[in-house]
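Milestone 3.1: sequence recovery, worked example.
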């Protein structure tokens, strides 16, 4: 409980943080009418629950039980508040330039999304999204510096019970390819969904995963994916939402959420390490630091 201040209901944390100081001081929110504040707040609630909100103003109005014209006006006036989930481009009453359609596309408040990741990963609020560029750069440098040797044997972490069931055939030429084996393991981790049990999907996953393996190591990629699929509630529920919307789960993990998963895993592992050290020294576990206010970004609920 000490590490998880927010209980989870159906995979959604029961308490939603608001950057009250940012809200109060933001010129954007100060301009809003009470009705617009209501739309903004209900949209944040919806995003907290589902991870995103509809791009289609009519659908959004319906989902938050608001008036269509008022909702449309809100999106037109504050088009930078909820941005394209994929490319973070401002809202427009059309398909996004990244390909997200108007009817099916989704929006997000980036700041709120970062809060979700923090809460769901047990990170102090304000961690995700803070100095993201600098952090990624450090990580990249760290990874590219000493080339890690490949382990000689690559045992899958969660070998499925073999019952003489043939694996789905794959168009990738070498069946002993370690990346292909990882692809099969990912499919098992996902619960062996029958809709993805075909060579075409496996080839697509192979193409998504292979560059990550080349940039890191096979074991690292396996660890990141296992963590997201098996251990982290936030990414698990994100996967569920993505799949319900017809998005490919591996594309969701590798293309959309990779950096977030890496950050969360990094923190989870260093936390586990610290816990071990505390336990080993016989000391009492320290109370988690509270919100680090200086990390909150300036301005509205972007
Ligand atoms: Zn877009």
């Amino acid at each position: 409980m000490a590490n998880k201040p927010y209980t989870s209901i159906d995979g959604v944390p029961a308490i939603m943080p608001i950057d009250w100081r940012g809200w109060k001081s933001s010129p954007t929110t100060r301009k809003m009418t009470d009705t617009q504040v209501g739309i903004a707040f209900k949209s944040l609630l919806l995003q907290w629950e589902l991870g995103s909100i509809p791009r289609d103003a009519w659908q959004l109005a319906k989902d938050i039980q608001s008036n269509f014209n008022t909702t449309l006006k809100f999106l037109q006036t504050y088009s930078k508040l909820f941005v394209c989930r994929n490319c973070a481009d401002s809202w427009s009453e059309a398909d996004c330039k990244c390909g997200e359609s108007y009817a099916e596309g989704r929006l997000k408040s980036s700041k709120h999304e970062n809060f979700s990741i923090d809460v769901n990963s047990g990170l102090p609020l304000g961690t995700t999204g803070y100095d993201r560029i600098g952090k990624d750069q450090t990580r990249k440098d760290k990874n590219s510096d000493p080339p890690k040797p490949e382990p000689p044997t690559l045992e899958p972490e969660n070998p499925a019970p073999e019952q003489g069931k043939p694996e789905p055939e794959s168009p990738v030429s070498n069946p002993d390819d370690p990346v292909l084996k990882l692809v099969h393991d990912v499919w098992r981790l996902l619960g062996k969904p029958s809709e993805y049990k075909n060579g075409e999907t496996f080839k697509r996953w192979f193409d998504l995963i292979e560059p990550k393996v080349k940039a890191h190591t096979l074991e690292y990629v396996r660890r990141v994916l296992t963590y997201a699929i098996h251990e982290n509630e936030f990414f698990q529920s994100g996967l569920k939402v993505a799949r319900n919307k017809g998005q490919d789960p591996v594309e969701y993990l590798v293309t959309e959420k990779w950096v977030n998963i890496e950050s969360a895993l990094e923190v989870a592992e260093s936390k586990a390490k610290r816990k071990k050290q505390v336990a080993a020294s016989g000391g009492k576990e320290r109370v988690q630091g509270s919100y680090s206010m200086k990390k909150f970004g300036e301005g509205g609920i972007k």
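The chain is about 50% helix and 5% strand. Residues 84, 86-87, 89, 96, 98, 100 surround zinc ion (CB under 6 Å).
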